[in-house]
Amino acid sequence: MHKRLRASLLFAGLLAAPFVLAAEGDSRVAVDMPAMMQDHMRANMRDHLRAINEIQRLLAAGNYGAAADLAEQRIGMSSLAAHGASHLAGFMPQGMQDTGTAMHQAASRFAVTAQEAAVTRDLPRALGALSQVTQQCVACHAGYRLK
Questions:
Q1: How far, in Å, CA of 117 to CA of 124, rounded?
Q2: Is-contact 145 33, C-beta < 8 A?
Q3: In angstroms, rounded to a whole number, what is the distance separating the alpha carbons of residues 87 and 57?
Q4: What is the pLDDT along the chain (147 residues), one digit of tens a residue?
Q5: CA Rg, the chain, in Å?
Q6: What residue spans of the chain are helical by DSSP H?
Q7: DSSP one-letter code for 31
Q8: Which residues face 146 on adjacent strands?
Q9: pTM
């Protein structure tokens, strides 16, 4: 019984270790902005994630045109005004701005690729273009955090 308890505690400690290390040794750039702007940015990111999820669902169903339209309107360059990007940009370091712009540009490129896939049925090419979008998300989240 004593060995089981010790093993359970060790296992629990191993599970918690990444969270403790992340809090103590987080080397990402801390971005300071007013709480209202943080809320706005997080809402935008959640919307981007929902859009990517829906895009994946549409691609799986073979509905490339709808995936393209959704990407452009919700994540692409056409979405900047709706997301208030110009208001948020002033609070971001240049590298974070550049990564965000690259993400929006990649989404617009994906939209074109998905439109082409509506004719060619080239799902791997469409997924490759979508991965360029999420690559920017990963890069930003790996490099920056809100204070």
A1: 9
A2: no
A3: 31
A4: 555 545 444 445 555 544 444 457 899 999 999 999 999 999 999 999 999 999 999 999 999 999 999 999 999 999 998 877 788 899 999 999 999 999 999 999 999 999 999 999 999 999 999 999 999 999 999 999 999
A5: 19
A6: 2-24, 35-60, 64-74, 85-89, 94-120, 123-143
A7: E
A8: 31
A9: 0.81
